[in-house]
Amino acid sequence: MTLLDIGAGMKGMKAEIANLGISLTYKSMDVARSNQHDFYDVGSISERFDAIIMFEVIEHMSLQEGLDLMKKLYSIMNEKGIIILSTPNIFNPGRYMRDATHETFYAYDELCGLLNIAGFEIRNVYRSY
pTM score > 0.85 for this model? Predict the structure, then answer.
């Protein structure tokens, strides 16, 4: 299995996956160069992945940038691949608004619509309050 971690930061998910004993090929992407990553720009990714994870990233982009990103991620996923992503719950404003770098508010149904437009089939949505 191949996994791409978008917005990987310090690659904490790589350690979590290793602690679970899961064997896979892990690659990371982040625009920040403070840590070493496999990719620093989504446009430079040409290989395909079985799974993509992206936690707390899309809200830092404009709506169009988010849509463009999701279309790109769809194009690099293998045919039965999955994507798991999260974004702060806008129905909990204290959580969402505490970061001034957030650009786009996503209600869960709006995020699902964006993912559908990009080509994804939604299997599950989980909300927290």
Answer: yes
